[in-house]
Amino acid sequence: MAAKRIVIDPVTRIEGHLRVEIEVKDGLVADAFSSGTMVRGLEIILRGRDPRDAWAFAERTCGVCTTVHALASVRSVEDALGIVIPPNAELVRNLMFCAQYMQDHVVHFYHLHALDWVDIVSALKADPIKTSEIAKSISSWPKTSPNYFAEVQKRIGNFVASGQLGIFAKGYWGHPAMKLPPEVNLLAVTHYLEALEWQKEIVKVHTVFGGKNPHPNYLVGGAPCSLNLDEANAINAERLALVGKLLAEAKTFVEQVYIPDLLAIAPFYTDWASIGGGLRNYMAYGDLPKNGFGDPSKFKFPRGVLLDRDLSKVYEVDGHDPRQVTEAISHSWYEYSDGDQAARHPWEGETKFNYTGPQPPYEQLNVEGKYSWLKTPRWNGHAMEVGPLARLLVGYASGNAEIKAVVDMGLKKLNVPVTALFSTLGRTAARGLETILVANWAQEFYGDLLANIKNGDTRMFNGEKWEPATWPTKARGVGLTEAPRGALAHWIVIEDEKIANYQLVVPSTWNASPRDAKGQRSAYEASLIGTPIADPEKPLEVLRTIHSFDPCLACAVH
Amino acid sequence: MQSTSLGRVYVWEIPVRLYHWLNALCIVVLCITGYLIGQPLAIQQASEASFSYWFGWVRFIHFVAAYLFLFNFAFRIYWGFAGNKYAGWKNFIIYRRKQLKEIKDVLAVDILQADNKPIETIGHNAMAGFTYFLTFLAFLFQCLTGFGLYAAMSKSWFAQLFAWIVPLMGGDFAVRQWHHAFMWFFILFAIVHVYLVFYHDYVEGRGEISSMGGGWKFIDKEHHPVLKKQDSDKAGPASAANDI
Amino acid sequence: MIATSRPTIWEHAQSRGVSRRDCLSACAWMTAMLGLPATAVPEITKALETKPRLPVVWFHFQECTCCSESFIRSSHPAVADIILDKISLDYTETLQAAAGHQAEEALHETMTKYKGEYLMLVEGSIPTAANGVYCCIGGRTAQDIVQEAAAGAKAVIAWGSCACNGCVQAAKPNPTRATPLHKIISGVPIIKVPGCPPIAEVMTGTIVHLLAFDRVPQLDGLGRPKAFYSRRVHDTCYRRPNYDAGLFVNSFDDENAKRGYCLYKVGCRGPVTYNACGVMRWNGGVSFPIQSGHGCIGCSEANFWDNGPFYHHLPSFPGFGIETTADNIGLAVGAATVAGVAAHAVVTNIRKRHLIREEMKTSEDVKDGRAEQGGE
Ligand code: HEM
Ligand code: HEM
Ligand code: NFV
Ligand code: SF4
Ligand code: SF4
Ligand code: F3S
Ligand SMILES: [Mg+2]
User: ipTM of the assembly?
Assistant: First the structure.
């Protein structure tokens, strides 16, 4: 049987503009091509600007993982100029980081990923009493009365009956790959609505410290909010109490809604524990410093690389090493001054558009040539998967006790071996499992912050290197972090007080990039190979694996 | 050059002199308060905000001076039609070949330091007139941008007349930036202007400095046919002078 | 406007167990939020009782999706209530279940079935360089898609600074020639809701206004709803008394910052920015940038990205270092002028000394001879 080309564009329930083209042969994906179809040129726009302003530009890379680019940006400048921020500022950044993870992961699970597994229409056939029983059996979350579920069912029923299906129109309802019983579907749909209400609460942590969400404010050298317990105009006991309450409620939601739902749905889809594994290499830059960003050994998420799924050896990652991280453009719509086969370290990175694709409107990309706006990053020449799974695997392999405990708990509950993690299901489960950790760590950081203040330390900003006159004429830095979708870094070159070069290498760039000059596939493309496709007209299975990465294309291309 | 016969000419009428000094005062005040608005002093600590209002006062003075400045300027435009011929609008617009030549001469004498030539103009020389024309444009620009900004802060109908300027110029930020930058035009003008007044007084000895006080200038009759004629007619100096 | 065979918003609410009393109080609340007099309550109530859900399509072009994210943060009305009960959000890449062909089908169905009736929401700017290849969806350019969709739209809302002004991708040198919506389409009313992103309740409030009154809210000269954009952040800023008193933060986290003084000297753009942050605040009224210690960066103003550096009151002068403002240049030119004037005075004295001495001599003569004119 000849291969059939299937195009999915737009891939929805993601951030940004992703196009996936697959070749299906004998009901399986034989080849896959992932393309980012929108570019803005932020790296070009950042040149020549004040490095202290960069975070604001960089933050606009993405409004979904808002804050993470601002964090990478201020760290890159601090690295270049040798600025060490006060402990309180580090803690505030950590708390904002944790809040971002909880919001982003929950929204991904319910609003971006769930409809790949949950059939809204089937939920209408559910018995609310049974749903209530299931809900009570898996969680102590209070909203579990049969009436409550009946109300939601009625609401959705009326919605469907109105004939205006809105965001649910033309979904893959009744698809043979949908396996959940109606009652579990109803439970998930109910929590879809609850999570939508909840997610707007946890982001208030950003609002307290950064003034707004999306896109809270950051500051090179610390955090912009001042601490003053005796002032209504500053971070005081009331503000801290609000943060404390938000973090506690978020932890409850994660523990009583998100994780129980994840663990209730997963057993129906254990076949996905052997589909969608893809690459065999994983990378994490690590983050959540306990002892300042200068001490990676005390990061909550450890740093490292795993090769060939070998959990016995963790390789070191160094953003300053000019050979480790490089970007290639042999299949990307850019050009390099020394030829398109070259790979460049981001400090020497170049961003120059060179569109060679078909003129729109087009049916198919020319995948032999350049076919995406994403560059192709590599670590020592290897393609890497980054993201929650990579973080947990690196932590697991590093022997981190907290991470090991939570991973083992998950594996035990699902009754699968650790190798099951190398899959679509593993990726989705890892995201949930790390959220448990993050919810706990947020409590810890909050406690640390209070303790620090109690000890009389109210510093939030180190202004020693604020004035450009104190800077060297030339400086280079890298800002590493772990965004919700994986390892994120910004590389900056400062010359004469201005940005001479700025390069972002983003988690979704690692995962969603086109193949490299040697033909090595990146994570999305690799993970799709071999995926069974029941109905080529409704490629739900492709969405499942792609969504398990939580794509963000505005990030990936920038 | 022999300054043997000096004639006294009544050049600057009272309204022009009043205008001039009020204008000078407004500009000094606007520059000082404007600069402070752009770069407020760094006061480390003070009493509660509600007990002090100094920055509010700075701005208030700026706005009061702004109104004075605008109406004074409007008056001067009116006087360009109603006043004597030294005050007339024709002095400010270069439209005769003679004026161009005069500009060349003035530049030659003042900048290239050529020898002084007999001075024919009694009021502004053409160069001065043209420079004042540019300053008038700057006045206009500063009033438009200033009142444009002020429209957002004032409910008065008058300020609202200028509200259209801000969107036209691309928003408040851009307008403030222009308004601020133009302050430097005024500062530079004042330095050069005051110097030149002293310079001309010194070099030409025609009482330039005091002319903005009493209104009189002193003119060498030998080189000035009109005054010569006037002298022989024994007529009042200002009334007879024409076509200069 | 829309066939009434479909249930109205009120019927819809009723069918999910909302009592008429709840509905009335919600309407009263909404009226207050929109800044309308109490007499408008019956009108808004009636409107919600008689209207079927408005078909809405939401496009994403060159953007970061922060506008969508902000939208779902709305606390009143809650976003689920809007998308389930008030509008029919038939196309939105971020949330819709269908993908690829199915998503495009959903879009085209709405565009044909409700031609002239649907509301079109646009998030992101539209690149016009290189024939539009910098943003393609389903193999078509953003420019192509937006023009087709606008032709059948009843009204258009431009979400955020991207759609209103081009935002960050239009900052210099604007490599993709990112263009705001109003420069691409015409012939349909456009409501601009700028901000990076706009406040959630400003977004939903604008939609509620359209739904309840079936007309475009009153707009200012730049096409923004007056209700939310008629005042500068500075005019509603709670730190304003400090500004008037001349109490300023001089550097971050200094004593004055800890007291919550005005952020003007660390670059606050509140005095040149029109937005509702000071009044409505963010995320259910928790805070806004200034309250959390950072100056406003002017995110709802056109070109705010090119008005940097953000921590200076004045922008830097293009072509110079980042610390070079109009004042630095003015001071330099002023000093040069003073020097020039001094030099001129010296040269004049040397060059014309002879002349003046002669002149002095003559005047001595005149004095001695009691000049014929009789002077003094
Ligand atoms: C010689 C004339 C003037 C000079 C040199 C001058 C100078 C200035 C300067 C330097 C600023 C500070 C701008 C900044 O850095 O943001 C300013 C602000 C301002 N000026 Fe003027 N100005 C003049 C005339 C006017 C006039 C005629 C008006 C009319 C009302 C006006 C209204 C304003 C306003 C409204 C502000 C902003 C004040 C605030 O936001 O607090 N100015 N001016
Ligand atoms: C900030 C300070 C000053 C400003 C802004 C200023 C502005 C002006 C302007 C606009 C004119 C044109 C008047 C008209 O024709 O309507 C003028 C003329 C004149 N000003 Fe000033 N002036 C200033 C200070 C002075 C001072 C300190 C003096 C003398 C001590 C002076 C002496 C004169 C004289 C003599 C003229 C007539 C000059 C000529 O036509 O060549 N000014 N000034
Ligand atoms: N990829 C990506 Fe992001 C994340 N997480 C950032 O670095 O989503 Ni918008
Ligand atoms: S307006 Fe700002 S926040 Fe909204 S999409 Fe554009 S860049 Fe993002
Ligand atoms: S903080 Fe900003 S908006 Fe508030 S008063 Fe000061 S300058 Fe105005
Ligand atoms: S930066 Fe934007 S969020 Fe408000 S305070 Fe300023 S308009
Ligand atoms: Mg990049």
Answer: 0.92
